[in-house]
Amino acid sequence: MKFGYARVSTQDQSLDVQIEKLTAAGCDEILQEKISGAKEERKELNRLLDKLRPGDTVYVVRLDRLGRRMMQLVKLINSFKTNCINFVSLENNIDTSTPMGMLMFNMMAAFAEMERELIKERTLAGVASAALRGRRGGRPPSLTKEKKELLRSLVEDRGSYPSANTGMKRGLFSVPEICKMVGITQSVYYRSVQELDSLKDH
User: Fold this and answer.
1) Contact yes or no for 134/161 (Cβ under 8 A)
2) Are strands 160-163 and 57-60 parallel, antiparallel or unpaired?
3) pLDDT tens digits for 179-188?
4) Residues recognised as catalytic
5) Rg (Cα) of the chain, in Å, rounded?
6) CA–CA separation, 104 vs 90, rounded Å?
7) Fewest C-beta in 10 Å: which of 2, 23, 146, 148?
8) H or E element: which one contains 37?
9) Sheet containing 29-34: order of strands
10) 3-state helix vs strand vs coil in the chain, percent to 5
C-alpha cells in the first residue's frame, strides 16, 4: 500500500495542493489533518502508523509535513526502516527504498545527531559558566539575603503582649502582615521559619 500524509498547521490553510501531489504519486489512501507539526500526538498520523505493514510506503510532499523537529523526523523514519516500511518525500528527493534515498536519510540523521550534541555541549557550557558566576540551575530562591534578614528580625522580635479580646496575643504582627512586609507568600514564610528554626511552637 502507498499511504500519503498531508498536513497543514491551521484550520484556514488548504490541503488541496498536497493532496493533488500525493494522488499524482499514486497513493492508495491519503490521511490528512490540520495541526501543528511540532505536536507529538497527532490523531491522523497515529492512524497512519497503525495502518502500516511491512512493504508499505509512506509519502509526504515535504519533510516538514511529517514533523517540524529533526530528531522527531529521524525517530519516525528509523521506525519505518526497522519495520520494513519505505518513506518518500517528494520535494526533498528522499526515497528510502533506493541507495541514494538511504544516503540522504543517513545524512539527515547524522546532522540531527550533530545538532543534538551541539545543544548538549552548549547546555553544559552554560551550566559551567553559571556555576563560575556563583549561580546554580533550577528555580531562583524565593528569599534574597536582605529579605531573609528582615524575616529573621521580624520572627525573632515576635513576643507576647496583652490583648483585650484574647488575653495574650502572639507577636506584634500577624503572619499575613509579615508576609506583606517581606513580600513573600505564607507557604514561603512557614518554610523559611522552619529553616530559621526560630519559633518552636509557631
Assistant:
1) no
2) unpaired
3) 877 788 888 8
4) 9
5) 30
6) 13
7) 146
8) none
9) 29-34, 2-8, 57-60, 86-89, 94-95
10) 50, 15, 35
